[in-house]
Design brief:
The structure holds 2 protein chains of 2 kinds.
Chain A: E1 13-20, H1 31-45, E2 55-59, H2 68-75, E3 81-85, H3 91-102, E4 108-115, H4 133-137, H5 143-157, H6 161-175, H7 189-194, E5 197-200, E6 202-203, E7 213-221, H8 222-228, E8 233-242, H9 259-269, E9 278-281, H10 286-295, H11 304-309, H12 326-329, H13 336-347, E10 360-367, E11 371-378
Parallel strand pairs in A: 2-3, 2-4, 9-10
Antiparallel strand pairs in A: 1-7, 1-8, 4-7, 5-6, 8-11, 10-11
Helix pairs in contact in A: 1-2, 6-10
Chain B: H1 8-14, E1 20-24, E2 30-31, E3 46-50, E4 54-63, E5 77-84, E6 89-92, E7 106-112, E8 120-125
Antiparallel strand pairs in B: 1-2, 1-3, 4-5, 4-7, 5-6, 7-8
The chains are: A alpha/beta, B mainly beta.
Chain lengths: 382, 132
């Protein structure tokens, strides 16, 4: 249970393309068609032929769409391998792609995701988890558990709402330089604190939007990468951990078991945490960013406000964080755009947001209270 | 709903002002939400039995937005997670705290009809003091 898997995947696969459709409201097109559109744009922009793709990994989207058998048919693909994951964030898809490539089941895998949840009226109002008391007590939306986790954090460490506000404010500042981002208007800490509560202690800016869009990554073996791209981004390390016992886990919504991923990911990648040049944390809520900053050891427990104020993390700080604006400001996309942004930054294709001297980036994500994953990407093959 | 994940005994017994959960016949583990298998020992036998109606508040929030139209009349309302002495973590509502911070407070169950569906457990400050 506490075994330390060795980083067998290190340097053996690479991302050779990342792309996306427009984000926001995309009416008149099905979720599966959006996913295929993301594939088309990604192949075209990166000069890769569809015939190169012999693996397909899709992700279920709102309304039950996104199944590999449907998307393969729409995209006219007979891949040697295909699968659908029931959860997004792209980390789980990427890790499966790496394993599939390493096992020789496919050589070049397209990871696709598309959703039209905004146009089709999703309000994230379904109860979370399996408890049936959710409907009796009105415990809907991720803001409920995230709000409780933040209150608990405040109780334990004295964290303030102002401390938390730095996360949304920093991400909005990045989004202002991102033409893809949906929320680009300025947001100051005072603006944040002036917002009314949605689920107290959380405000609108602490919660991700609901938007339509598609994204795609093309992953191949490190040996083939040079044939498909002159700027491959290497997968240096991957790690996962679950918390599937859910409600029976102590402090379930603070998700302390994420720490197990942190213990594995740096050894798996053969680097130290201090080697990370840019950090991406999937953010359905700002509270998840706060938690992962601490659980991966980037800030001291309770020290998030200070870390932003001292310029240790965030916009203009030592460690750039969610330079696309994240789900809070850029677009929903269940975290897929964090990896797209990391790839663009590492390839020097991030336009106005381009960071200097970037070699290594890390992406951390979670599937609710069930699963956590992290990936370390590098410009170098280690 | 599978018979084995049917939690209706819990809600029926709440109507009698009692907190009742499945106890594993093999290892005694008390589980909630209802399930056909014990998550500790994987045993299948269970018996619904009352538990001590006391616990500690893990955390709480206040909904100012109705995420379903059935909740429009109710906002603002609070939701809390209480860790019962029997080990179960139960979603609930807090009552009687005024402006005091309930996190970590010792609470005991009382029963109210908050959703027009009959009596359900809500939790008030325990007589005789606060916990950690």
């Amino acid at each position: 249970m506490t075994s330390q898997p060795r980083g067998a995947i290190r340097g053996r696969s690479a991302i050779v393309a990342a792309g996306n459709t427009e984000q926001g409201t995309v009416p008149g097109i099905s979720a599966d068609e959006i996913a295929v559109e993301a594939l088309r744009l990604t192949l075209r922009e990166n000069g890769i032929q569809k015939s190169e793709v012999d693996g397909l990994i899709t992700c279920k989207s709102y309304g039950g769409f996104g199944i590999d058998t449907e998307i393969g048919r729409l995209a006219g693909l007979n891949p040697g391998y295909s699968a659908t994951l029931d959860y997004g964030t792209c980390n789980f898809s990427l890790h499966l792609a790496c394993a599939v490539i390493d096992a020789g089941l496919a050589s070049t895998v397209a990871i696709v995701y598309g959703t039209n949840q905004r146009s089709s009226g999703n309000r994230f109002s379904h109860p979370l988890g399996r408890q049936d008391e959710a409907s009796v007590y009105g415990f809907l939306n991720v803001a409920g558990p995230a709000g409780m986790a933040f209150r608990r954090h405040q109780h334990r460490y004295g964290t303030t709402e102002r401390d938390l506000g730095h996360i949304a404010v920093s991400q909005r500042r990045y989004a202002r330089d991102n033409p893809l981002a949906i929320f680009r208007e300025p947001l100051s800490l005072d603006d944040y604190l002036a917002q009314p509560y949605l689920v107290e202690p959380l405000r609108r800016a602490d919660l991700c939007m609901i938007s339509d869009g598609g994204a795609c990554l093309i992953v191949t073996s490190a040996d083939r990468a040079a044939d498909l791209s002159d700027k491959p981004v290497h997968v240096q390390g991957i790690a996962q951990q679950t918390g599937l016992r859910d409600r029976q886990n102590a402090d379930q919504w603070m998700r302390p078991w994420i720490e197990r991923v942190a213990e594995r990911i740096y050894p798996a990648a053969g680097i130290e945490r201090a080697d990370i040049d840019a950090l991406y944390i999937q953010d359905p809520t700002s509270v998840w960013v706060l938690q992962m900053l601490e659980l991966y050891g980037f800030v001291q427990p309770g020290g998030v406000g200070e870390a932003f104020r001292n310029g240790e993390v965030g916009f203009g700080g030592k460690l750039p964080l969610n330079t696309n604006g994240g789900q809070l400001s850029e677009a929903y996309m269940w975290g897929f755009l964090h990896l797209c942004e990391a790839v663009r930054q590492l390839r020097g294709e991030a336009g106005e947001r381009q960071l200097d001297g970037l070699r290594t980036a890390q992406y951390c994500s979670t599937f609710g209270f069930m699963k956590a994953a992290s990936t370390i990407l590098s410009t170098d093959r280690s | 709903m599978d018979a084995t994940t049917d939690g209706s005994v819990f809600w029926d017994q709440a109507g009698n002002a009692t907190l009742t959960f499945q106890h594993c016949d093999e290892c005694g583990f008390v589980r909630w939400p209802a399930a056909g298998v014990c998550p500790e020992c994987l045993g299948r036998g269970f018996t619904w039995k009352p538990v001590e109606p006391r616990g500690t508040v893990w955390s709480w929030v206040v909904y100012h937005r109705a995420y379903d139209k059935s909740l429009r009349e109710r906002i603002p309302y609070n939701v809390a997670l209480v860790e019962l002495t029997c080990g179960v973590r139960l979603l609930t509502r807090l009552t009687g705290f005024g402006s005091a911070d309930p996190v970590g407070a010792a609470v005991e169950a009382t029963f109210e009809d908050i959703a027009g569906t009959g009596l359900v457990p809500v939790f008030a400050p325990a007589a005789g003091g606060t916990a950690s």
